[in-house]
Design brief:
Length: 1259
């Protein structure tokens, strides 16, 4: 999305054309400034008998959708006289023209929210116009709506789709939740009807387009929880569900609980439109109904407030669920569900658009049956917002929904009148509704308090349409307003039953009453001819299911009932067992649930009083306080919270999990790993007398971070841990503030602060030792400021300043490579869908990550190793310049062809069905003696993938004195596992993060002696960790700068581009054969051959004869279900060759030469060797268990279990480098230069770190 430069003048009379309207005045000609024609109502014939013009008297104009008009005495179009008929201004936000999803979302938007924001008895109306147009806030005063200047502080920062007034913090003042293209923003009511942006405080973080919202107290703990809908974003296949379900802690701070909702995607995408909380089984816990597009509507049962289970049955068959309404339309005491969808005539659309659905709750337990046809509500149009309401007050619900789309531009909104026996008659036009605009959100409410339900429709890119209900039948009504207890003052989830002579009606108070709409929580009951009701019964939304009842109530009034205060107290347990109703001082046994994968239990917290026997034990006792309370089991993404884990280790593991939850950007995360490690080191070293700090009290990138030791801390160990924690916490929150899983990252960081006993609300900064928290905040602030000027372009999300690719994008799903112009230069990919290595959907044509990264401030890179180049006005910094790679034209063309041909040939080794077995133990692989230097040596080194002439293996384990046990596995399993394992780490923490995982495993080894370089005194765990992280972090950061400096300057081609481009040109082996080209692929029997006549690949018309074929991995088209399918190896046309990667990833979005993996790994191996004082892993070997049939992500495998093993750090690094060739990501000439650069970087980084440790670093 791009922000348009035209910014309207907020709060001034001409903000929108509507801003020129005085309250309750007719539009006058000339209002506005865009040259439009306005109709003066003085031009319309009026009289005492005809005070409002008829339809025929209204001249067609841009405001015809909201002009006042009346036809038959039922509904009257009344927007004009209410002050809601106006010309909207131009869009403040415009969508990316190349992004069809953004375009659709702009077209889908337009909502309404209605509530009393200042508690003065007069409601306000928030109108979202959609299309990137600014929204408007009105107050209803004395018969009309008056614009509130500046929207009372509600100022969305991206294109707004809708908004919801919800009391989030239980102070009885409604707050505001804005759903937008870029996510969600929360604006808290300041207790006066004015709002302040508070998303950070609420912790409701969303990173993607968000649509409708529903609110209810799903765990019955007395506060309001939230559900959101997302549409159009690619499904995050590698991630737990996020940003759908949020649990309130009682203070307006939320925690993402989406994994407890078994939502499933359709067509690989998020397709949810409208969530509705409703107690469909009448057990007191609100269930969730999710209306979704492309057949994705689901029914979820709330299991005692702990999780949701999917109970969707075969009757839920809507194909394009968009809007929704929930009510007891058949008056049998349970809640039914209407889903608006799309109806298109079968003659035009076949069965593509088969209309709305009405699901009847058949058993009162949430089992739905489809009664659409019987009820006669199928034929709507392109349906959006909908509502059940009793428009004629006959005691039976009617049904309204609006329509509109770019395809169905003149769809009429429909109103189905209830027939009192479960059927409906469409009667919109007969009742005066002639709405054919692009309707979206709908509210059905009695805005003028005359006892008749009116209709408000939000129109996309236009002002709303209002239909006032002027029905003059003599039917009666009763309205019921509930006031709940603090925390849920709107009594959301309460169930009201009204019994009269007419019968019994049931209504449940809902918030989030349909698509992009939030109406008042007052319940409206039509009574027909009944002048009174026998009783009004309420079941309140609390753990006790408290009740209220009132008898003999006269009709035609609004009654107010307040929730009774109970003396009993209850304990709510989040993520654990022990909830119930208790008495003060009761001791309750608590047991935490099994932790999620990758997490361990950390501690218990309470949102009130009460005492835990042991707050850090999974099983403990809790003594009840005097009032109800919620306790929460907390979890951390760490190996252990025990005494063996230092504070630095805990923060490092939270950082690694943050990286896994962010976009897969190895350069960015190498920098994050270094800066956060350096910040922790600075916080630790500040309290010492020997070590020099890196930024604190020093200058980097021209920024000086002040520091004056001042008074010495009384407890240095505790002070160090506190300062370190605040520094890491603040810097993690800052660096991941734009993460796609920000909510999860912030939650983990918050939990760790709580576990450590730190008060995260302490935000003051100080540059002395006497306040460790303030010092930590100061350190984080210094790194934040320095990071804005260190050359990374963090302010603009690390975008390249001038780099542009020379080649047009390759579309891998299409054959060949027709768009390439330079076979030496990098080529972007254009994918149907791009999902990065961390599982995050992103741009389908991802840009080069870090093309100008060589100029980022380094840790230990030396200017003597720097070469400056210039291209297209951009200076490129290259450290340790390896020289040019082989090019397609010139003296090294044979090396060019051979290198990419090796990638294709090695692809033939990715088949577990072949009979080749290999010994993968250190007895046979590893201990590489030298790297190749000449082309002949390259050919020997890489001749079959396992390089027996260079892999010497080891005779004995130096730690045990015993031989390494051989381990024979299938080569096709081993190669596939290596390609996956080393891609970005087994959990996608990117290559530099993977080496931190390895470092942590080394630290945990019982045989490791924590002595720097293996000599000197043994260090305590905190000192070891901060110095180890500082050293490795500096090396990983410098490796990124060095490798990406080379990548940016040489801008070298990737294998998929080269192999396909060369195959398009033919073969280069024999001038006398067909398809000869010096820039084609070299033929190799059994691997690279020509397609002859009669070949199965020749095509029906033998159109492919003479093309190149490869014996290689067959590609993702052969994997329909990754749980059971294996693509295998076979003959394919070279123009269709794929690397061993997901079809939504294909290859990393940056140049190939040199290999980043090779550079990172070699640098890390050097640091670990020098850090520990040994080339070998502790115990002489490190290993990683690979289970059978479940480790690989995009096809089944491996076929049998195995254990990856390495004797030396260097062996692991070398294996990582080779894995990229099997993965189809790098040719050999990308690999070796990266290893060589990495070794230099690692040595220099550790030596620089040692200078800091000794306090002898010089400016």
């Amino acid at each position: 999305m791009h922000r348009q430069h035209l910014i309207p003048t907020r709060g001034k009379p001409q903000r929108l054309n509507l801003w020129c309207l005085a309250p309750m005045l007719w539009l006058v000609q000339g209002c506005g400034g865009f040259g439009e024609t306005w109709i003066n109502t003085d031009d319309v014939e009026q009289s005492e008998d005809n005070p409002i013009a008829t339809v025929d008297q209204i001249v067609s104009d841009e405001l015809s959708h909201c002009r006042d008009r009346r036809e038959n005495g039922f509904f009257t179009s009344a927007g004009e006289s209410l002050g809601l008929c106006y010309q909207t201004d131009e869009a403040v936000y415009v969508f990316d023209e190349t992004n069809t999803t953004e375009r659709d979302l702009f077209d889908f938007s337009g909502g309404l929210a209605y509530a009393d924001i200042d508690n003065n008895g007069s409601p306000e109306l928030y109108v979202t116009h959609g299309g990137g147009i600014s929204s408007a806030l009105f107050s209803y005063e004395g018969g009309g709506f008056v614009l509130l200047e500046g929207n009372r502080g509600i100022s969305p920062s991206s294109a707004e789709f809708g908004g919801y007034f919800i009391d989030l913090n239980g102070d009885s003042w409604v707050d505001f939740v804005s759903v937008q293209l870029d996510g969600v923003e929360v604006f808290m009511n300041q207790g006066n009807g004015f709002f302040e942006e508070s998303t950070e405080a609420s912790r409701v973080f969303h990173d993607r387009a968000t649509l409708s919202v529903a609110a209810s107290d799903i765990d019955r703990d007395g506060d309001v929880d939230l559900a959101f809908a997302h549409w159009g974003t690619g499904w995050r296949t590698e991630k737990p569900l996020s940003e759908y379900l949020w649990i309130n802690d009682g203070s307006g701070v939320f925690r993402d609980r989406s994994p407890h909702l078994p939502l499933v995607p359709t067509e690989g995408s998020e397709n949810a439109f409208t969530p509705t909380f409703a107690d469909i089984d009448s057990d007191g816990y609100p269930d969730l109904l999710m209306a979704g597009d492309f057949g994705s509507s689901q029914v979820f049962r709330n299991v005692e407030g702990r999780w949701f289970e999917d109970i969707t049955n075969e009757h839920i068959t809507d194909k394009n669920g968009m809007g929704a309404a929930v009510a007891d339309f058949d008056r049998d005491g349970d809640l039914d569900w209407f889903v608006s969808s799309i109806w298109g005539h079968p003659d035009l659309y076949g069965d593509l658009y088969d209309g709305n659905r009405l699901y009847r709750n058949s058993d009162g337990e949430g089992t739905y049956e489809d009664v659409t046809s019987v009820a006669n509500v199928r034929y709507g149009g392109w349906g959006w917002g909908s509502c059940f309401a009793d428009f004629d007050n006959d005691g039976w619900l009617d049904l309204f929904h609006t329509n509109g789309s770019a395809l169905f531009t003149k769809d009429k909104s429909v109103l189905y009148l209830g027939n009192q026996h479960g059927t409906f008659i469409e009667s919109a036009e007969q009742l005066g509704i002639h709405h054919t605009e692009q309707g979206r959100g709908v509210l059905c409410l009695d805005y003028n308090d005359d006892g008749k339900v009116d209709i408000l429709i939000a129109n996309n890119r236009k002002s709303p349409t209002v239909y006032r209900n002027d029905n003059d039948n003599e039917n009666h009504f009763l309205k019921v307003k509930l006031i709940g207890l603090s925390g849920n003052a709107q009594a959301i989830g309460a169930r009201i039953t009204v019994t009269s002579q007419n019968g019994t009606q049931t209504h449940e108070v809902q918030l989030g009453t349909g698509y992009l709409a939030q109406g008042p929580t007052i319940a409206h009951f039509g009574l027909g001819g009944d002048e009174s009701v026998e009783s009004v019964d309420v079941i309140w939304p609390d753990r006790f299911r408290s009740t209220s009842s009132i008898e003999s109530v006269s009709a035609n009034q609004t009654i107010v009932l307040e929730q009774p205060v109970r003396e009993e107290i209850f304990l709510n347990v989040v993520d654990g067992a022990g909830a119930g109703i208790y008495e003060s001082t009761d001791r309750i046994f608590l047991e935490a649930e099994v932790p999620p994968d990758g997490y361990v239990f950390s501690h218990w917290t309470s949102n009130g009083d009460g005492v835990f026997d042991d707050w850090k034990s999974e099983q403990t006792y809790f003594t009840m306080p005097a009032g109800s309370v919620t306790v929460t089991a907390n979890y951390l993404p760490v190996t252990s919270t025990g005494p063996d884990s230092s504070v630095a280790r805990l923060w490092n593991e939270v950082l690694l999990e943050s990286i896994r939850n962010d976009y897969a950007r190895p350069t960015v995360h190498a920098r994050n790993l270094f800066h956060i490690s350096a910040a922790m080191y600075d916080a630790w070293a500040a309290f010492g007398s020997t070590e020099a700090t890196w930024l604190l009290g020093s200058s980097q990138a021209g920024y000086t971070c002040k520091f004056s030791k001042g008074a010495t801390a009384t407890d240095i160990d505790e002070s160090r841990q506190e300062a370190l924690s605040f520094a890491a916490y603040r810097l993690i929150l800052h660096r991941f503030s734009r993460s796609p899983s920000r909510g999860t990252i912030v939650r983990d960081a918050d939990v760790l602060m709580s576990f450590l006993g730190n008060d995260k609300s302490l935000t003051n900064e100080g540059a002395t030792l006497d306040d460790p928290a303030a010092l930590g905040n100061h350190i984080a602030s210094c790194y934040t400021r320095m990071g804005m000027i260190d050359g990374a372009n963090e302010s603009y999300d690390y975008e390249n300043a001038k780099y542009r690719p020379v080649n047009g994008a390759l579309r891998p799903e299409e054959p060949g490579n027709p768009n390439i112009v330079d076979l030496n230069r990098w080529q972007p990919l254009s994918l149907v869908e791009f999902i990065d290595q961390s599982g995050n959907p992103s741009s389908s044509e991802p840009a080069f990550i870090g093309a100008e990264w060589g100029s980022v401030l380094s840790f230990a890179l030396d200017e003597n190793d720097l070469t400056l180049f210039e291209r297209d006005g951009q200076e490129y910094w290259v450290y340790h310049d390896p020289g040019e790679p082989p090019f397609i034209h010139g003296s090294r063309i044979d090396e060019y062809r051979w290198g990419f041909e090796r990638v294709a040939v090695w692809s033939s080794q990715l088949d577990p069905s072949d009979d080749v077995q290999v010994d993968i133990s250190p007895s046979s692989i590893g201990n590489i003696s030298a790297y190749p230097e000449t082309f002949d040596e390259y050919q020997t080194f890489y001749k079959d993938g396992l390089s027996p002439d260079f892999n010497l293996g080891y005779e004995v384990n130096p730690s045990t004195g015993l031989s390494y046990t051989p381990q024979l596995v299938k080569r096709g399993d081993f190669t596939r596992v290596l390609a996956e394992f080393w891609a970005d780490g087994p959990d996608s923490e990117t290559p530099p993060g993977h080496w931190f995982v390895i470092l942590n495993s080394v630290t945990d080894h019982p045989e490791l002696s924590k002595r720097l370089g293996g000599t000197g005194p043994e260090l305590d765990k905190l000192e070891w960790d901060v110095k180890a992280y500082f050293s490795l972090g500096g090396a990983m950061h410098d490796a990124a700068i060095a490798a990406w400096g080379v990548k940016g300057w040489y801008d070298y081609i990737r294998p998929i581009s080269a192999i396909r481009a060369m195959s398009d040109r033919g073969q280069s082996s024999d001038p006398d054969q067909v398809s000869y080209s010096t820039t084609g692929l070299g033929l190799q029997d059994g691997f690279i051959e020509l397609i002859d006549s009669g070949d199965p690949l020749a095509g029906e018309s033998e159109e492919h004869v003479g093309k190149i074929k490869l014996y290689a991995w067959r590609g993702p088209d052969y994997v329909k279900d990754s749980r059971i399918d294996v693509a295998g190896v076979g003959w394919i046309r070279a123009e269709n060759w794929w690397p061993y990667q997901r079809p939504s990833f294909v290859t990393p979005p940056f140049a190939g030469y040199v290999s980043g993996h090779s550079t990172y790994s070699s640098a890390a191996a050097e640091v670990l060797t020098r850090l520990t004082g040994s080339e070998y892993f502790p115990g002489g070997m490190s290993s990683f268990d690979i289970p059978a049939d479940e480790f690989l992500k995009f096809e089944r495998g491996p076929s049998g279990p195995m254990v990856l093993q390495w004797a030396k750090y260097k062996d692991a690094a070398d294996q990582c480098s080779l894995s990229r060739i099997w993965g189809g990501i790098h040719p050999p000439h990308d690999d070796i230069p990266g290893r060589i650069i990495g070794r230099k970087v690692g040595v220099d980084a550790f030596e620089e770190a040692e200078l800091y440790f000794a306090g002898s670093v010089s400016d």
